[in-house]
# Entry
Amino acid sequence: MEQGRISDEELEILLNDLLEQHGYDFTEYAHASLKRRINRLASLDKFPSFAELRFRLKNDEGYLKRFVEEISVNVTEMFRDPLFYKTLREEVLPVLATYPLIRIWHAGCATGEEVYSLAIVLKELKLLEKSLLYATDINPSVLETARKGIFPLSQMKIYSENYVEAGGSQEFSQYYTANYDFAKMDEELKKRIILATHNLVSDHSFNVFHLILCRNVLIYFNKDLQDRVFRLFDDSLEKLGFLALGAKETIRFSSIAGSYQLQGKEKIWRKIK
Amino acid sequence: MEKDKVERFKAIIIGGSAGSLSVLLEVLPQLSQDISAAIIIVLHRKSTTDSLLVELFSSKTSVPVSEAAEKELIEPGKIYVAPADYHLLIEQDFSFSFDASEKINFSRPSIDVSFESAAEVFRESLVGILLSGANADGVVGLQAIRSFGGTTIAQRPDTAEVPYMPEQAIQQVAMDFILSPPEIADFLNGQIRI
# Structure
């Protein structure tokens, strides 16, 4: 770890250890970001050398858990990219309204802020009762936060602005109860949310959906893994269903591109064949 | 003289915050069209101005300008602008990758993150230039560029609208050059040699 930076060779060794000893496969993650997260953690936890980090990971289950949590990025917010949610509200969900049951998969949901955002939009469109929102992540501890639905109160001002920009016209504060420094999301929003661990690298399709959201997850994968995940989504999406990605992600260069049509300006594609 | 080495093209990474836009608008029109390096620009700004910035820069130079795209291979002779709200990183195969993790130095994109990542990949072929700004984002990155053998440049503080950022760089990192905006243009055109 020259100058506190893990080398490419050391990264390979570490990723092999994680896979062989613990079954975590990060080998097809984009390396630049992974390296940065590992360097950051090694400096935070004051490892003097690569060997010591490697030893700790090999022998300390508790630390391994911390490591896996910390190297995956869980930054998210409610109504992230408000115009994206406006498009969902005005153009995508009204199309799905014709189905008797709307199945939605939010893959890589982290702490769930975007899942609650979608639940709010569905509720306002009077579609929540006939929707099922499957929200999955590789990381059980973030799902626990999503399950509780308790977020810092300090964020609610920004979320409320995002909500309005996303086309919301109600009083945003009706969707949570403030308690000291926290906001607890309304129980009614949770009723149609199903949380489960799912690893996009190794797990298979588990249902067929009308809408799949996977936002700012694929940027952490290399091209081969991205393409495998796109095929997983394709296998999991009904014909005429929608696939929604993060602002800088695209299916354009993937093997499934030919079956999909971009809907307007946001990163939302419709499966046309 | 470097014929035997693996062909690693030159890259110039420019970071700036408050007061840096005017510097770029002054420098870009003076760029010669046949520039042989890749230029990567990382600016602090509001998240809504992405396409505007690319359009603005495009109007100032005949060198092609585009927003860096996820997994895009970097090519010499082009200018890339980091998108708002993501950290911009560079992979060993000279492609861009993005990271939406926590802000660094209250910034996303963070100049430090891009500089450090570019330093490791481009090594001695990299030039890092830090322009006007009100915080110290980029200083750690310049340190990394230096330790990987790259070239470090700060804008001359008395020419900066907000001198804090280049001042911090000069105080904390050994600089190869301290240049005014016209000199930065000369440097980019190869008239000042490393």
User: Anything to note?
Assistant: The longest helix of chain A spans residues 8-22. Chain A is about 40% helix and 20% strand.
